[in-house]
Design brief:
Helices cover 17% and strands 23% of the residues. The protein contains 3 helices and 12 strands, in the order H-H-E-E-E-E-E-E-E-E-E-E-E-E-H.
Length: 256
Amino acid sequence: MTVIPRQGQAPEGRPGPGTGSGERPRPLKRAAALFVAALLISGCGLSAELDREANPEREPNPGASQPEPADPAPPTDLSLGPDTPPSAAPSTPSCPKSGVSMSPGMVTAAMGLRAMSVTLTNCGKGVRELNGYPDIRVRGLDRQLFDVTVLKGTEPVTTMDDPGPSRVKLRPGQSAYTSLVWRYSAVDASTKAGSGVYVEIGPAKGAARQTIEPDGGLDIGETGMLGTTAWQRGPDDDQGTRAVHSAVPNLVRTRS
């Protein structure tokens, strides 16, 4: 005999609605899904809340992993530390063994007459003494020695004030100057033949010479004459060099 179940009653052997192991009603499933989503969305807030509940004083937990500190920002102070070598200072010209250095001034030209000053500076430690005229030799571009007559004084090249020999004492850092005068001689512009490119000059005869290169050279020719003045004290404002330049027009008027 077949028993027909009444409406709402599960067949025999199957659990009915609301029993332990069957499918849950749909409202319960939707509620569970919303609860899980809420947990996922508010996971960070929940974790923070649980942390506050477990440690209300916010004391550091030695067992908790700490993030690795980021690399410190580079220091804004650019000053060098004790272990950092200082930057190289600008190089300065070295002082020769003689303790004096020579430097040429500008060449002044007017109507065939030339004038130039040479400054001697005591770059050593002791006092230097000058007395008399410089010792000079002139060489061409090929370093060959010119047969130039070097005069003690400025005549017969021109008339120029020459103080004559006197003792000039230079303390370290002080300078003296001499004036060189000559007349223009034909110079080959292409080969520079006749141009004294290199001037070897010493404080006195027998002293060590230094080689200087005047700007443009000395257009003196290979058999010219070179007048000189005795060493005289050079003011710190380079008045000696200006005195040579200002004297050239006067020389031209007296010796044309």
